[in-house]
Amino acid sequence: MPSFSLLAFAFLTLHFIFDHMALVRERRQSKLGLRLPEISDRRTRFPPTAPQQLKNTTNASTTSVADYETVQVLGHGNGGTVYKVVHKKTSNVFALKVVHANSDPVMRRQIFREMEILRRTDSPFVVKCHDIFEKPGGDIAILMEYMDVGTLDSLSKNTDGGIFTEHTLANVARQILNGLNYLHTHKIIHRDIKPANLLVNKNMDVKIADFGVSKIMYRTLEACNSYVGTCAYMSPERFDPDSYGANYNGYSGDIWSLGLTMLELYMGHFPLLPAGQKPDWAALMCAICFGEAPSLPEGVSEEFRSFIECCLQKDSGKRWTASQLLSHPFCRQPEN
Q1: Is residue 192 annotated as part of the catalytic site, yes or no?
Q2: Where does ATP bind (predicted)?
């Protein structure tokens, strides 16, 4: 039977652990909640009525949403709806993202942030915004280019991941890195790179989308370690800046997320947890902060393995930049 001193020691150890966990949760859990399900998996909180009579707010044209015919609902999100629409005169197809006036205030702030960034960007590797509309009642609509396949997440699930060979992933990585390099050059940090936020079309053109939690770095040394984005793809320093933030660089968080994205597409499941296990905050924190950095299984090329290692350095200062990764041998493979 254990002695009293051993029992006391065990009790004190557990007490310390639980106190520490409580402190961590108090500091972070309110901001670390997992993101809500993707729009295709969630019913809207408000009636998905087609938008009407919205006026354009980005240029002097008289274009309005009345000029577009709704083809179908692509999905519902937190306080909004995404439609596939066709311009009545030209038959051009677009995606129309509508956020309702009575949606959650956080969602409203995110849509205004996304509008600001989309107005600033012009890259073939970032989803293009054609128009922004607003009506007096407060509904906001963003008219964007339509990517006919959907997201890399939906493509992976619909094809059981078999389409993502090393060669295909090299092309995917190259396009995402071109997009990140453009954003980072313009002092924009995405902060939520993941398969569900990367749009793809039938030509396998990949574009970065969803800037709701992104940040524009107005000052060179401005901090960017807030707990936003999807927890599963957060870098260690964003979970625990005290331990991993000594060489903190906000842009490198996007590179960690890219590495996890490439791993997930290749492996067919989220790489930090066993296949089929749903991520929760505690499991993710332990895996990202205390576990070994994830790696590829046996049988992959040295170039691919090296590329993943350059992305998933736990010390953010050792991660390669988007510009450096574009010159990595894995990304320099011939496209065909």
Answers
A1: yes
A2: 97
